[in-house]
Design goal:
The complex is a heterodimer of chains A (344) and B (259). Chain A contains 14 helices and 2 strands, in the order H-H-H-H-H-E-E-H-H-H-H-H-H-H-H-H. By secondary structure, chain A is mostly helical. A two-stranded antiparallel sheet of chain A has the order 1-2. In chain A, strand 1 and strand 2 (126-127) form a beta hairpin. The radius of gyration of chain A is 20 Å and the shape is globular. Mean pLDDT of chain A is 86; it is low at 1-5. Chain B has one domain (3-231): Rossmann fold, CATH 3.40.50. Helices cover 32% and strands 26% of the residues of chain B. Chain B has helices at 43-50, 73-77, 95-101, 115-127, 143-156, 173-190, 201-207, 225-228, 231-238; strands spanning 3-12, 20-28, 32-36, 58-63, 66-67, 80-83, 161-165, 193-197, 210-215, 218-223, 242-246, 253-257. The radius of gyration of chain B is 19 Å and the shape is globular. The N and C termini of chain B lie far apart (41 Å). The model of chain B has no long low-confidence stretch (mean pLDDT 91). The chains are: A mainly alpha (344), B alpha/beta (259).
C-alpha cells in the first residue's frame, strides 16, 4: 500500500487516473474537512444540537454569518490559486500572480472611485462598490491586452511590463483619491485594500460557485496543453498546441476569476503565489494535477486564514489579507531558501 | 521515394529585410540533410519555416503535397518534430513528463494519458538511453542528458521528419557523436527524414548524405558532402581558406581551416 502510494508520487511521465486521484483526492478531502469544521469555530460558541434544531442565535450565527463566509472564502481561495497557476504558466514566470498583470489594482481602483463618489447603494443584492471593482478589473484586462498586443501577437514580456506599469499608475491614482477623500471614505478604502470575506451572503456564494467551478472544469480541458506552453511557446507549437488560443483563453479565465472574486473580497495577496508553489513542490508542475490540487489547497488555505482572522483577536476581526501576508510571506521565504533549485 | 518538402520561391523576413531570399528546393522522404552556413545565413529560420513555427512568408512551402499553412497544427505535430538548440524549463518537470509532452498530438483522452502513450514514451526513452532519467528533474540533468531527453520527447511524437536546430552545439565531443549516432540509426532503420542545422562542418560531413550550404538567405551549394566541401565552396560559404582531406575510415571528407 505504501509502495503503491509512493509509486503514484513518483513522476516518471504518464498521468493515469490513479495517480491523479492519489494526489488530488487527499487535497479535496482536506479542503472538505476544513470547510466542514471552520463554521463551528468562532468568537461565539455554537453547538450542533442547537444549530440543527434551529435554536436562535446559534442557527443564525451558523447559517447566516459563518457558513456563507466560509464557503465564499473557499471559492475565493480556490479562484485566486487557479489564477496564479494560469498566470505563472502563460507568462512562464514563477513570480507571476493575479497582482502582476494589474487586475487586482484595476479592481481596487474601481472600488476606490465608487467609494469616493459615495456610491454606497446595493443593486440586486450586489454593492455598487463591487460592481465598480469588477468593471475596473475588466477594463484593466482589456487595457493590458491592448497595450501588449503588437501585430496580432501578444508577447509575454510586454504583457508583464504592461501589467506592472499599469500597477504603478493605478496605485498613484489610488493614492491621490485616498488623499482627496474625506476621513470615513479613506477608512473604507484602507479597509478595502486589506481584503475581507465578511461581505458575503448566501446569494454571493450561489452566484460565484457555478462560475468558479465552471472555470475549474474548463481549465481541466486545456490543462494538458498548458504543460508544453509553460515550457515555451515554440515547444508548445511544435507539439500541436494552438498557442495563441490557449494563451488568450488562459489569460482571460485567470483575469475574470481574479476580477470576479476580488470585486467582493478586495485584493487578497499571496494566495495566488504560495499555493501554486507549494503544490508544485509536492505534486509537480503537471497542470492536470496542479490546477485542481491548487484549487482545493487554495480554498482550504484561505478558509483557515479567515478563521484565524475571525478568532485570533476576537471579538475584533483582523482583515484576512493581513493574515495571508503574515503567514504566507515568511513561509514563502523559507521555501525559497530551502528548495531554490527546484523552483526555477 | 516521394518528395516530402517542396519549397518554391520562399521569401521571409522578421522585419522588412528578408532573411530568406527566393528559396526553392525539394527534400525527399528518408534523406539526411545538413544545413550549413555562417551566422545569419537563415538556416535556423528556414528550419522554423519547415517546422511550421514561422508564418507570414511568401512563396510556397508544401509538406507531403499540401501547403504547410493548410495543415492543422496537431496533424502537423504528429508528422514533424523539432529539436531546438537548448531547452530550459521554468518549472520542475521531470524528464519523463517532458517526454510525455511529445504524446500530446496523439493523445485521445481529454485529461489522462493512456497506457499506449506511456509505452510510446518508454520506447522513445529506451532508444535515447534516457529511461533511467525518467523521474529526475529535467533542469538537474547535464547538457547531454537534457538534449537526449528532448530528442526522446520529439521521438514520442512518432514523426516522419526530425528537424534539428544545432542540437549538439553545447555538448562535448562524446555527446555530440552519441546524439548523432542515435539520429543516424533513426534515419537508417526507420527511414526518418532528418534535417539538421549545424555549424560543425565535419560532423555534418560525417553523418549527412546531403549538404545544403546557405549564405545571406539563399543556397549556394547543394549536394553530397564530398561535393560541397571543396576549398572554393568553403571560401564562398564561410570566407575561409581550408584544406579538405579524406577521412581515414572512408566516411567522406573533413576540413581544416587554415586562414
Amino acid at each position: 500500500m505504501a509502495a503503491a502510494a509512493t509509486s503514484f508520487l513518483r513522476r516518471d511521465g504518464a498521468l493515469s487516473a490513479g495517480r491523479f486521484l492519489a494526489v488530488v483526492g487527499p487535497c479535496a478531502a482536506f479542503c472538505l474537512l476544513v470547510v466542514l469544521f471552520a463554521p463551528w469555530i468562532g468568537s461565539t460558541g455554537v453547538t450542533w444540537r442547537n444549530v440543527l434544531a434551529g435554536v436562535s442565535p446559534d442557527r443564525e450565527i451558523f447559517f447566516v454569518a459563518r457558513l456563507p463566509r466560509v464557503l465564499f472564502g473557499a471559492l475565493v481561495g480556490g479562484a485566486l490559486a487557479m489564477a496564479g497557476v494560469l498566470f505563472q504558466a502563460i507568462l512562464r514566470n514563477s513570480l507571476a500572480d493575479p497582482f502582476t498583470l494589474g487586475v487586482s489594482a484595476g479592481s481596487s481602483l474601481g472600488a476606490f472611485i465608487a467609494i469616493w463618489l459615495g456610491l454606497e447603494m446595493v443593486i440586486w443584492g450586489i454593492p455598487v462598490v463591487s460592481i465598480a471593482a469588477f468593471i475596473g478589473a475588466f477594463l484593466t484586462i482589456a487595457l493590458v491586452f491592448f497595450i501588449a498586443r503588437t501585430a496580432g501577437v501578444v508577447p509575454t514580456f510586454t504583457l508583464i511590463l504592461a501589467g506592472v506599469t499599469l500597477n504603478f499608475i493605478f496605485f498613484a491614482v489610488m493614492m491621490f483619491i485616498h488623499y482627496a477623500a474625506n476621513f470615513s471614505q479613506g477608512y473604507l478604502m484602507t479597509r478595502w485594500t486589506m481584503g475581507a470575506l465578511d461581505t458575503a451572503d448566501m446569494r454571493t456564494v450561489l452566484g460565484a460557485a457555478p462560475f468558479v467551478i465552471g472555470c475549474l472544469a474548463g481549465l481541466m480541458w486545456i490543462a494538458g496543453q498548458l504543460n508544453p506552453l509553460s515550457a515555451g511557446e515554440e515547444w508548445a507549437a511544435s507539439r500541436g498546441v494552438d498557442v495563441r488560443r490557449v494563451k488568450k483563453l488562459s489569460y482571460f479565465i485567470g483575469s475574470i476569476l481574479t476580477g470576479a472574486v476580488t470585486a467582493f473580497s478586495g485584493p487578497i495577496g499571496f494566495v495566488g503565489l504560495i499555493v501554486p508553489h507549494t503544490v508544485r513542490l509536492v505534486a509537480g508542475p503537471d497542470h492536470r494535477v496542479l490546477i485542481p490540487a491548487s484549487f482545493f489547497i487554495g480554498s482550504a488555505f484561505l478558509v483557515l486564514c479567515d478563521t484565524a482572522a475571525r478568532t485570533l483577536f476576537a471579538p475584533t476581526e483582523i482583515p484576512v489579507g493581513v493574515i495571508t501576508a503574515l503567514l504566507g510571506g515568511p513561509f514563502f521565504i523559507a521555501l525559497l531558501k530551502r528548495k531554490r533549485g527546484d523552483l526555477w | 521515394m516521394s518528395c516530402i518538402f517542396h519549397l518554391n520561391n520562399l521569401v521571409f523576413g522578421y522585419t522588412s529585410t528578408p532573411v530568406l531570399r527566393n528559396i526553392s528546393t525539394e527534400i525527399t522522404a528518408g534523406e539526411f540533410v545538413a544545413l550549413v552556413g555562417p551566422n545569419g545565413a537563415g538556416k535556423s529560420t528556414l528550419l522554423k519555416v519547415l517546422a511550421g513555427l514561422v508564418r507570414g512568408y511568401s512563396g510556397s512551402v508544401e509538406f507531403s503535397g499540401k501547403s504547410l499553412s493548410r495543415w492543422n497544427s496537431r496533424e502537423l505535430a504528429r508528422r514533424i518534430a523539432f529539436v531546438p538548440q537548448e531547452t530550459h524549463m521554468v518549472f520542475p518537470f521531470t524528464a519523463g513528463e517532458i517526454v510525455m509532452m511529445g504524446r500530446l498530438p496523439h493523445r485521445a483522452g481529454a485529461v489522462f494519458d493512456n497506457p499506449r502513450d506511456a509505452e510510446w514514451a518508454g520506447e522513445a526513452m529506451a532508444l535515447t538511453d534516457t529511461a533511467a532519467l525518467a523521474s529526475k528533474v529535467f533542469n538537474h540533468l547535464s547538457g547531454g542528458e537534457r538534449q537526449r531527453v528532448v530528442l526522446a520527447s520529439a521521438l514520442a511524437q512518432d514523426p516522419q521528419v526530425l528537424l534539428l536546430d544545432e542540437p549538439t552545439v553545447y555538448l562535448d565531443l562524446k555527446h555530440q557523436m552519441q546524439f548523432y549516432d542515435i539520429v543516424e540509426r533513426l534515419n537508417a532503420e526507420r527511414g526518418m527524414t532528418i534535417i539538421s542545422v549545424t555549424h560543425d562542418v565535419n560532423l555534418a560531413a560525417r553523418y549527412a548524405r546531403r549538404m545544403m550550404a546557405m549564405r545571406a538567405g539563399s543556397f549556394i551549394a547543394d549536394g553530397p558532402p564530398g561535393e560541397v566541401l571543396t576549398p572554393q565552396h568553403l571560401y564562398d560559404i564561410f570566407e575561409i581558406t581550408a584544406a579538405v582531406f579524406q577521412r581515414p575510415d572512408g566516411r567522406g571528407s573533413y576540413i581544416i581551416p587554415t586562414a
